[in-house]
Design a protein that fits this description.
CATH topology: Alpha-Beta Plaits
Number of helices: 5
Strand order of the largest sheet: 2-3-1-4
CATH architecture: 2-Layer Sandwich
Distance between the termini: 10 Å
Strand content: 15-25%
Order of helices and strands: HEHEEHHEH
């Protein structure tokens, strides 16, 4: 009987896990963008983007090969914001409008901008939940 209670406890604990939801701006730079011109203008974009309120982290992935399927993306930039509200406010702010203008200029308008909720968790934390399941 105790094993059954442990399983029931896990059911009630799992919905209470609080993983913060941030909001992400993803910038996809296609292969056909003149990368030299882009790289020259990127510091100006970053200067404006880093003034946008709510920005907490940024990253870049430089794509060097496609493992499967056809790829037309050279780089992927990610900008994380505290939440959707701070992201939306930052886009409409003077630094956000400046950053938007610059990214359009340095890509010749050939850029893909995506946004959406972002959550992450560590493998260590995920595995700790698996250990609880093993105990039941």
């Amino acid at each position: 009987m105790p094993k059954k209670r442990a399983a029931i406890s896990i059911i009630f604990i799992l919905p209470k896990i609080n993983i913060p939801t941030m909001y992400q701006l993803i910038i996809l730079i296609p292969l056909n963008v003149n990368i030299n011109s882009f790289d020259e203008g990127w510091p100006d974009f970053l200067e404006a983007a880093e003034e946008m309120e709510g920005l907490i982290r940024e990253s870049v992935s430089r794509i060097d090969r496609s493992i499967y399927g056809q790829n037309n993306i050279r780089r992927i930039y990610s900008f994380l914001y505290r939440d959707k509200s701070s992201f939306e406010k930052s886009l409409l702010s003077p630094p956000g409008e400046k950053a938007g203008k610059i990214i359009h200029e340095i890509t010749g308008g050939d850029v893909i901008l995506l946004s959406g909720p972002f959550q992450e968790d560590s493998l260590e934390r995920i595995q700790s939940w698996e250990d609880l399941d093993d105990d039941s």
